[in-house]
Amino acid sequence: MSNPLPPELARRIDALEAQPAAQDFDPVSWLWLALLGVVLPIALLILGWWL
Amino acid sequence: MSLADGGLADKSAWPLLPAERSWGPWRLAIALATAAAATWCYLIGEYVGYYLNFFQGAAAMSAGCMIGMLIVFLAAGPICARYGIDSVASTKPQFGSSGWIIPALMQLISIIGWNSLLLIFFAKSATELLSVLGLLSPAISARQIVPGAALLACTLIYFSLLWGARGVSTISKILVAHVLIGLWMLYLLVSHRWPELEAARPALARPDRLWDYTTGLELGISSTLSWWPYVGAMIRMAPNARTAVLPVMLGMGAPVPLLSLIGLAGVLVLKTSDPAQWLRTVGGTPYAIVALLFVGAANFGTAIAGIYSSAIGLRNFAALERTPWWLLLLATIAPVAVIGVLIPELFFAKFGTFLAFLGVGFAPLCGIQIADYFVLRHRRVSLRGIYARDPAGPYAYLHGFNPAAVVALALGCAVYIGLLNPLTFASSAPYEFLTASLPAALCAGVAYLVGSRVYGPYGPHPPATG
Fold first, then answer.
1. B275 CA to chain A: closest CA distance, Å?
2. Structural domains present in chain B
3. For chain A, which has fewer Cβ within 10 Å, the N-terminal or C-terminal residue?
4. Interface confidence: ipTM more than 0.95
5. HSE on the CB side for A10, CA within 13 Å?
6. Sign of the dihedral defined by the CA atoms of residues B167, B80, B73, B426, in that order
7. What end-to-end distance do the CA atoms of chain A give, in Å?
8. Which stretch of DSSP H or E encloses residue A27?
9. What is the spatial distance between Cα B120 and Cα B325, in angstroms, rounded to a whole number?
């Protein structure tokens, strides 16, 4: 049996789902993620191996 | 509980409206840095220092922390930031309208464990500080003081968090200074003991250099993966995922390896990762006092963020949805207080075992979330489905559990343990080339995608929104 959502929660969901779909990350964000989460670690690993 | 005025929004697990997500990049970065920088940094550094020298340890640990941070952020970040929900709520599309209890329990046990450790450490530091300052009678042992100090810390955290997220933010702004003190401590050790540090050899280094190096990397990755609960609870206060990228990667990912260097340098040179002990060796009592204040501030700040994250996670249980905030906080902090008061020494002794098994679960969990959000759903989830208690809802699956996610999680855990036994550190090939966390996350993600197709009617079929 369906359990109705509390009115305030339903209001919040309506408000958020009515918003236009936005991108999570723009190209600049992806660039930072790639640099800090992939390129930097690989560079550190290579550097550390030879130290 | 009414959230109509928005003033209580940060004390609920309900989605936050854009107007309520007021944390800008700096505020978020400060809160995350304060949450991440704690005693666990010394422990991470200490373990790495058993296998690697200072340079290799610093490189492998830093790389691991940044990789782990990326995985956690890609797993929980987009959905938490988009809808202003916490990490536990973000697992409902994968695990189901009842199955989310599995990651919720993982979060609860993880945070209770971590915070018990931090508060016991806090209590020990406070006790030692009293002793160093001559305020503690020699007739009174530390064992007698620690339970009382732990209870005092719990009380302070409780009253700080009555403000909700504002309490976390306010305390963070004050305590973030300890990160700078930590870097000063690192400078002291490096500058005073550089020749010894350069020559120091790790105590448990194996003949296989690659194995040691991979283990340093693995320790960095797996430690950071347990930040999963904190990331969601904090970045839901940010307006969007883009705003959170640099605060998460630099504010949370970078301070951990930097402060872990304290433990790494300490264990290599002075055979102890506790800065309170080695600063006394390096600079005498005044330095020891600074270190003890640092340890206390660091652990207090992190424990505040942890208890807050845990309380928000508990809100996802229907029975606790309308519980007054003060009562929910009390329920969250009570287990920590009980451990800190009744069994601090026993918990300390057994904590490594407890922690080792926790780390195993978060890698597969993150792999499942990334596969679900980016591959299976193409970044579209049903917010209404996350909160619906309808048996025919989009995330109802099989009696509320998604078999694909449960099986994938179990498989990921098995892969991790198969590659690296977290208790004995016995490993199997190809651990030395791949680590254990990365294959566990990958296998769980792939298994989840395959399982979602195989299970057919129980697979994801959300009315895509957002």
1. 25
2. 16-458 (1.10.4160.10)
3. N
4. no
5. 6
6. positive
7. 64
8. helix A27-34
9. 25
Q: Give the CA angle between residues B422, B300, B174 to the nearest 5°.
A: 130
Distance from C-alpha of B464 to C-alpha of B383, rounded to nearest angstrom? 9
- Enter the tokens of residue B189: 């050790």
Nearest to A21 among B69, B240, B466 (CB): B466
> Any idea of the CA torsion for B19, B25, B30, B34, to the nearest 10 degrees?
80
Q: Is the peptide bond before B286 cis (omega within 30 degrees of 0)?
A: no
Alpha carbon A7 to its chain centroid, in Å, reads 28
Smallest CA–CA distance, residue A25 to chain B, in Å, is 5
In tens, the pLDDT along B43-93 reads 788 888 889 988 899 999 999 999 999 999 999 989 898 888 888 889 999
Nearest CA in chain A to B57: A48
Minimum-distance CB partner of A13 among B15, B217, B389 = B15
Considering only alpha carbons, which residue of chain A is nearest residue B244?
A: A29
CB contact under 8 A, B82 and A24: yes
Count Cα atoms within 13 angstroms, Cβ side, for B140.
Answer: 14
CB pairs under 8 A between A and B: 116
Map chain B to HEC letters. CCCCCCCCHHHCCCCCCHHHCCCCHHHHHHHHHHHHCCCHHHHHHHHHHCCCCHHHHHHHHHHHHHHHHHHHHHHHHHHHHHHCCCCCHHHHHHHCCCCCHHHHHHHHHHHHHHHHHHHHHHHHHHHHHHHHCCCCCCCCCHHHHHHHHHHHHHHHHHHHHCCCHHHHHHHHHHHCHHHHHHHHHHHHHHHHCHHHHHHCCCCCCCCCHHHHHHHHHHHHHHHHHCCHHHHHHHHCCCCCHHHHHHHHHHHHCCHHHHHHHHHHHHHHHCCCCCHHHHHHHHHHHHHHHHHHHHHHHHHHHHHHHHHHHHHHHHCCCHHHCCCCHHHHHHHHHHHHHHHHHHCHHHHHHHHHHHHHHHHHHHHHHHHHHHHHHHHHCCCCCCHHHHHCCCCCCCCCCECCECHHHHHHHHHHHHHHHHHECCCCCCECCCHHHHCCHHHHHHHHHHHHHHHHHHCHHHCCCCCCCC
- Residue-wise pLDDT for B327-367, tens only, equals 888 888 888 888 878 877 777 666 656 656 666 889 999 99
- Chain B residues with CB under 8 Å of A18 CB are none
pTM: 0.84
Distance from CA of B11 to the nearest CA of A (A): 14
Cβ distance B383 to A17 less than 8 Å, yes or no, reads yes
- Measured torsion, CA atoms of residues B198, B204, B209, B211, in degrees rounded to the nearest 10: -130
pLDDT the model gives residue B466: 45
